[in-house]
Design goal:
The chain is mostly helical and 78 residues long. It has 5 helices and no strands. Helix 3 packs antiparallel against helix 4. It starts with a helix and ends in an 8-residue tail after the last helix. 26% of the residues are buried.
Length: 78
C-alpha cells in the first residue's frame, strides 16, 4: 500500500493530468482511500469512499484543477 501511494505521488506531471480524465480518475480515488487508511483517520476514509462512488462525477474536475495548480490531486495535506 505504501509503495502504491509513493508511486502515485512521484508520477510525472503529464501522467497526473491523464489520470484526471473522468473514467481514469478512479485511480486517484483509490489513492485517496488508501491514504486515509494509512493515516488511520476515519473521516479521511469515509471521504475516500465517497470520492469513489457518488463523488466520481465531480472529483475528476477538482483533481484536474488541483493538479494544474499544485501538482497533486485534491486531498488533504499530510
Amino acid at each position: 500500500m505504501n509503495d502504491f501511494i509513493k508511486a502515485m505521488e512521484k508520477l510525472p506531471f503529464i501522467v497526473k493530468l491523464i489520470l484526471c480524465i473522468p473514467v481514469l480518475d478512479i485511480i486517484w480515488s483509490i489513492w485517496k482511500l488508501l491514504k486515509g487508511i494509512k493515516s488511520g483517520n476515519i473521516v479521511m476514509i469515509i471521504l475516500g469512499i465517497l470520492t469513489i462512488i457518488p463523488g466520481a462525477a465531480i472529483m475528476w474536475l477538482l483533481d484536474l484543477i488541483f493538479v494544474l495548480f499544485s501538482g497533486r490531486p485534491f486531498w488533504f495535506k499530510d
